[in-house]
Amino acid sequence: MAVDMTISIPDAQLTNFEKFVNPAGGNDSDADKEAAIKTWIQNWVNEQLWIMARNNAVAAVDDPTV
């Protein structure tokens, strides 16, 4: 199961946000910038989910060092 979400980034801020998430740049078109932003957001979400799963696993055992 997956949930699709929509975010809104004002056109005037698209380039600035893309530079934030992809400092190396190289994306000239709005479509490339949008793809880079979507990839960055998905990677961030994946990382947060992994951290939550790990924290839950550690909390589920009495001594996580064993």
General shape:
elongated
Low-confidence parts: none
Count of distinct strands: 0
How large is the radius of gyration? 17 Å
First and last CA, distance: 33 Å
Give me the strand/helix succession: HH
Strand residues, percent: under 5%
Tally of individual helices? 2
The helix-and-strand class reads mainly alpha
Q: Report on the biggest sheet.
A: none
Average pLDDT metric: 88
Kindly state the percentage of residues in helix. Answer: 55-70%
Summarize the structure.
With 66 residues, the protein is mainly α.
Give short descriptive properties of this protein:
single chain; mainly alpha; 2 helices
What features would you describe in this structure?
The protein is mainly alpha-helical and 66 residues long. 62% of the residues lie in helices and 0% in strands. It has a domain at 34-59. The protein contains 2 helices and no strands. It is elongated and about 50 Å long.
